[in-house]
Amino acid sequence: MKITPYTRKSLESNLKDETLSRFGLLAGQEGITPLRIAPEVNVVKIGGHGVIDYGSIAVHPLITEIKALCADFPMLIMTGGGARVRHIMDIGLDLGMPTGVLASLAGKISEQNALMLSILLADVGGQAISTADILEVPNLLRQGVLPVTQGTPPFGLFEVPPEKGMLPQYRTDCGALIAAEVLGAKSCILVKNTAGLFDKNPFLCEDAELIPSITTTELMDMGMDDMVMEHKAVEILSHCKNLHEVKIVNGHNPGELTAVLREGKAGTIIRRG
């Protein structure tokens, strides 16, 4: 075949002449149902600040509960960072580190927590995996592995610059939601150190009231200054296709994780919509 300088060769595709950012094109994709890769998996994110930082008094009962549940409820365990993330970010801010560097440093801390929990869960198949291995979760579960990974999204140096300040916006709650969405998981559960989402910080305000159920639209309209779930995680949930809700339970109360997995009971349920 003779190719002239004036001949444009292109693979046939419905998107071949698109910029991929045209609003009309994007709107036309709303009816597409994404494949659910692991529809039986429960993504359980264990907070670093809320649970792991308390040490054995909080972690060991929760580990015992997970061991009793994991045979009946396939899980992907994800971990937060906690106090050490706050410490390294404080130092990083003082030294003028860019947001992407702060995000990379934070990920190393939540990875450490994932390693420790995987060791505690080793006798029931606990194994630390990389965030790059998320798509291996269905196969790992079939082999009797209980996968444990960090919750920090792997944006690293490519972390999106925040609207305000320098701290990374996409932290471990966000990572758990994104993982649950891409897997098409059965549920996404955030294990915290409070009964759920409150209208005010319950550790500072005695009159704080628990919000048992709320939609993402209602929550974003409240414009809360501080809350137990990351602001960007609420925004992510509002855009999800597979994931319809996030449940928050108190990891310091033995039995709450069991109740949410067996009966759907949670301190707070945040629904997309």
From TrEMBL:
Annotated Gene Ontology cellular component terms: cytoplasm
Keyword Transmembrane helix belongs to the record: no
InterPro entries: AceGlu_kinase-like_sf, Asp/Glu/Uridylate_kinase, MoSto_subunit_alpha/beta
UniProt cross-references to Gene3D superfamilies, sorted A to Z: Acetylglutamate kinase-like
Kinase among keywords: yes
UniProt KW keywords: Kinase, Transferase
Positions of the Aspartate/glutamate/uridylate kinase domain: 42-250
UniProt feature coiled coil, ranges: none
GO molecular function, one term: kinase activity
Entry protein name: Aspartate/glutamate/uridylate kinase
